[in-house]
Amino acid sequence: MVQENVIISTRALQWKCVELRTDSKRLYYGRFILAPLMKGQADTIGIAMRRALLGEIEGTCIIRAKSEKIPHEYSTIIGIQESVHEILMNLKEIVLRNTLYGTHDAFICVKGPGYVTAQYIILPPSVEIVDNTQHIANLTEPINLCIELKITRNRGYHIKTPNNSQDRSYPIDAVFMLVRNANHSIHSYVNGNEKQEIRFLEIWTNGSLTPKEALHEASQNLIDLFIPFLHAEEENFHLENNQHKDTLPLFTFHGKLTKQKKNKKEQTLKSIFIDQSELPPRVYNCLKRSNIHTLLDLLNNSKKDLIKMKHFRMEDVKHILDILELEIEKHFA
To answer: Are residues 80 and 139 in contact, defined by beta-carbon separation less than 8 angstroms?
Structure first.
């Protein structure tokens, strides 16, 4: 456990982590302060930050399970102590850490007797288990338990939809919230003739990220939500004067590409993946989630299309243009 004395500057606004604690593999705790704030600012920040922590941070969950041996969700299987429903609930509790978007496949294939825990889940390279000891089932006889799993990344809480298919797959309620709880409180004090406030923020996470990481991600998500307001006047001017759609390549590089054989250039661009460009991880993930995998895919999107992407900012467009210019000059100079 890390704990520090709280020392508040009466001048510049600053934040500080005053306590970090690991209660278990699936429970981290952090306590933070932000000060000095003017009267009323602590509430503004606290309410927005708590909502961002609980609702805006993305997590990874198992959303579906499939097994040929399961006749229906509320059945029991000879040789397994738990009912099928209990196994699904245990799978729901598995805490995962994932760096990529999209839906991934995972598998469990175990022969009894013995306890089946999270360590037996075979995962793709981008996904890892936070606590390998999490219980799934107890096999009391020498039978095989094979389950196919679907894993995805999202935010909030998704209630499973009724399963009408006959493929013996069963949806699982998904709790994508990595932050288990967030509390905020205010300490008021007088500095000279001015009343000021200290904002205390407590964060509990499920172990897939630390409270510091959760605070950073929630803050970034809040900033991204407000960025469009800063550029509202600029965007309105652009829409009024440019009703047509400008694609990324074609407002900067179209001339360079159309002077030569178009088909050949398109094939070259199609073979250059964005993985080869030095994109920041956040920008890279935004593009991949929007099915943009090559430079050609990127060039076929407009500036407006990019801005509409979740977590994409105006300055990211400039960064992409700089990278595109380098790539175009490298391959077509």
So the answer is: yes
Between helices 314-332 and 262-270, what is the axis angle to 10°?
120
Q: Give per-residue burial for 112-141: e unless 16+ CB within 10 Å, then b.
A: beeebbbebbebeeebebbbeebebbebee
- How far apart are alpha carbons 292 and 272 in whole angstroms? 12
Rounded-to-integer distance, Cα 123 and Cα 105, Å: 7
Are the beta carbons of 202 and 30 closer than 8 angstroms?
yes
Give the per-residue SS3 of 215-269: HHHHHHHHHHHHHHHHCHHHHHHHHHHCCCCCECHHHCCHHHHHCCCHHHHHHHH
What mean pLDDT, rounded, does the chain reach?
Answer: 82
Query: 42 versus 252: which is more confidently predicted?
Result: 42
How close are the terminal C-alpha atoms of the chain, in Å? 57
Q: Quick: pLDDT tens for 186-243.
A: 999 988 888 899 999 999 999 999 999 999 999 988 988 887 777 665 555 555 555 4
User: Which residues is 61 bridged to in the sheet?
Assistant: 152
Average pLDDT over residues 285-299: 79
CA within 13 Å, CB half, 313: 15
The secondary structure of residue 119, as a DSSP letter, is G
Q: pLDDT at residue 10 above 60?
A: no
Instruction: Identify the residue with better confidence: 105 or 163.
Output: 105
The CA-based diameter of the chain, rounded to the nearest angstrom, is: 77
Tokens of 154: 């999202």
The residue with greater pLDDT, 159 or 34, is 34
53 contacts: CB under 8 Å, gap ≥ 6: 179, 182, 203, 214, 215, 218
Alpha carbon of residue 302 to chain centroid? 24
CA distance 119 to 37: 47
Cα–Cα dist 181/98, whole Å:
21
